[in-house]
Amino acid sequence: MPEYAVLGSLESEPQLALPEIAEDFLGSVAGAPPEPEELAATLGPGLSSLAADKLLEVRRFSSWPAEWSQGAPIEGDVLGAAAGQAGAWCALDGESVLVARITEAGWRWL
Questions:
Q1: 100: which strand partners?
Q2: Which residue, 2, 14, 42, 69, is the most exposed by fewest CB within 10 angstroms?
Q3: Which residue, 82, 108, 104, is CA-closest to 72?
């Protein structure tokens, strides 16, 4: 489910900041919205798993929107730690923004 929630958000928009993915996910949740920590615990592992399987790529930006080439690739344990932080899934006003972009393999998986 977390993988589909992340990848499904990218189906209509091929690259989104994590707060935009979280907003899309929250729109599908019934009842009270989860706390930011719960959101990170739910979506973070899915994001990391999809990146490890090369179904999406994640980059860190100092501000968003920006050109994709301006972002620094983030992967592996660094991505896992960053995606597990509640702030990564909150509003776009932080020091840096993580952005996911679906890959060709990701499109085939959908």
A1: 16, 58
A2: 69
A3: 82
Contact 56, 104 (CB under 8 A): no
pLDDT along the chain (110 residues), means of 10: 87 93 87 87 95 96 93 96 93 82 91
H/E segment holding residue 73 = strand 72-73
Q: Which domain holds residue 44?
A: 2-109
CATH label of the domain that carries residue 52: 1.10.10
As to burial, measured by CB atoms within 10 angstroms (0-12 exposed, 13-18 middle, 19+ buried), residue 35 is exposed
d(CA 58, CA 54): 10
